[in-house]
Amino acid sequence: MIILNGGSSSGKSGIVRCLQDLLPDPWLAFGVDSFVDALPAKMRGSGEGIEFTADGGVEVGADFRALEAAWMEGVAEMARAGARVVVDDVFLGGPASQQRWQKAIGALDVLWVGVRCDGTVATARELARGDRGRGMAALQAQVVHEGVLYDLEVNTTRTESLTCARTIAARVG
Amino acid sequence: MIILNGGSSSGKSGIVRCLQDLLPDPWLAFGVDSFVDALPAKMRGSGEGIEFTADGGVEVGADFRALEAAWMEGVAEMARAGARVVVDDVFLGGPASQQRWQKAIGALDVLWVGVRCDGTVATARELARGDRGRGMAALQAQVVHEGVLYDLEVNTTRTESLTCARTIAARVG
Amino acid sequence: MIILNGGSSSGKSGIVRCLQDLLPDPWLAFGVDSFVDALPAKMRGSGEGIEFTADGGVEVGADFRALEAAWMEGVAEMARAGARVVVDDVFLGGPASQQRWQKAIGALDVLWVGVRCDGTVATARELARGDRGRGMAALQAQVVHEGVLYDLEVNTTRTESLTCARTIAARVG
Amino acid sequence: MIILNGGSSSGKSGIVRCLQDLLPDPWLAFGVDSFVDALPAKMRGSGEGIEFTADGGVEVGADFRALEAAWMEGVAEMARAGARVVVDDVFLGGPASQQRWQKAIGALDVLWVGVRCDGTVATARELARGDRGRGMAALQAQVVHEGVLYDLEVNTTRTESLTCARTIAARVG
């Protein structure tokens, strides 16, 4: 199992697609985006679910946390059942987010990867993508890494996703 | 846990979205589409992965089956961990597909729902949607239901997804 | 040139895809959705651009109207230059919207088609689609047709898009 | 009017989104992708329409060319009618493609912009995006620029889209 953590527009999804291509065995990819897609539409924009504020902030409520915990247990179970699984997440809670994953994965072997990107560059990419709420890249660039421990860190500020993925793949093989 | 089975363009996804809106508790939604999205791109169109033939046929290989089994275990584990989970699937193997789910879910309480749609109508909707390989709706309309046992069946041929969802929700509440 | 007018979730896009398939000659398809996609992101949610209110209302400003007029001229010019063009629009202004198109198309031959759908059914389909602001279907179902003159009307309440498209295609052939 | 030309995955769309944000006036954005979306689905993968070969090649037929010419006339007409329009295209025919646009735009004032990207880097981004046929980036990186004349060239190999857009915007303002 590989868990990538990084802010919005730091390039996590691109790295995951490259990893799935580079690694000889088939890896399943899940992440915070696919989890949010699995939620009822009415939980988006609700106090109990997940809310995006005008300045790029993200707030999650009790229902979100409860479903997220069950989702993490399930994703870890896929790995226990024999699937190779790569996850990309945004540790809005820093070490608390990492602990939630650690609780779910138990004794599973995990490679923790930090995906860093300079806030200014991530903000430029957020604008170029056009599909994300503005401000998220800047707000998340630093805070998601504070207090989190990694086996490996990559930085997409001046390095292509494919090159970062090669660095990670070299540690998995 | 709710498991919906039906052919391509039978209206499963629409029913799931309505169910997530109707049911008072939050339900997570997964399905064969989100599973295929989690696969490496190189497994789409590969003999070991999943192939779509020109006439609408779907063929899956050994790697697909192995990852699917792990994915089913994980989805069932989410339900065991306390999440309410609705799944939509296409039982290309009929009762063999249902048995794969039964193996994963074990003692969990499941509502099995058949989503039927007349092949001609499903084919018309496939054309109107424009995002699916042509021919899948017709090929799958009957075969996915053969030998499968349901707690409840709905039919979208002349009934809106929301109405079908209300019928299902009444059995869950 | 064919211009379809109908409320949100009335089934216009599905009819257009079926028309493009049924008609022997190739037809280009444009519509209010592709026009809004062409706007700067910052015009969405702005007083000068286009705003969607919480209850499903849509309000457009001066910049939107000016660009829309130029866009209509351009789409009409494509038809004058020899392309067959089908447009789907939402006449929020009723006859005023139709007059805007009439000004752009001038002497071009146009088939005006009304796409009706019962508000309750359109609302059910809006929920099942899950990609539109809630409330638009109900608010628009009647008002977009008031005072508008058609060569042909179809009704998707109980008729598939493909069947409606066949009715339209029979008038074009 | 601004016309950007560059190979697949060279970063044209990101530059366009940034331009629409940077420029104080509202600009409409069109391009080869929105044109292909307007075509009948049956023209994709057809000899008369547009075909994508397994190695990333693109071949277009007579119907494609005829509709494209009418589309170019219409886009130019939008500019004549007062809209500011930015177009991104892939000049597969090099100078012949540029001449097609010149015929449509006539006396309109146009800024011709070349968007260059090293083939290796474009190929890496193609893999990271995951939504394009593989091989297109490498095949198109050089050939689309051969014999084409520009007012301005930008290079996304080591420069963010936003920075490239600022260079272009400075010439427009």
Summarize the topology.
The structure is a homotetramer of 173-residue chains.
Chain A: E1 2-5, H1 12-22, E2 27-31, H2 32-38, E3 50-52, E4 58-60, H3 62-80, E5 84-89, H4 95-105, E6 111-116, H5 119-129, H6 136-140, E7 152-155, H7 161-172
Parallel strand pairs in A: 1-5, 1-6, 2-5, 6-7
Antiparallel strand pairs in A: 3-4
Structural account:
Four copies of one chain form a homotetramer. The first copy, chain A, is α/β, with parallel strands linked by helices. Helices cover 44% and strands 18% of the residues of chain A. Chain A has helices at 12-22, 32-38, 62-80, 95-105, 119-129, 136-140, 161-172, and strands at 2-5, 27-31, 50-52, 58-60, 84-89, 111-116, 152-155. In chain A, the strands form two sheets. Chain A has a five-stranded parallel β-sheet with strand order 2-5-1-6-7, with helices on both faces. In chain A, strands 3-4 form a two-stranded antiparallel sheet. In chain A, β3 and β4 form a beta hairpin. In chain A, α1 packs across α7 and α3 (62-80) packs across α4. Chain A starts with a strand and ends with a helix. The mean pLDDT of chain A is 96.
Question: Could you name the key traits of this structure?
Answer:
homotetramer; two-stranded antiparallel ribbon; 173 residues
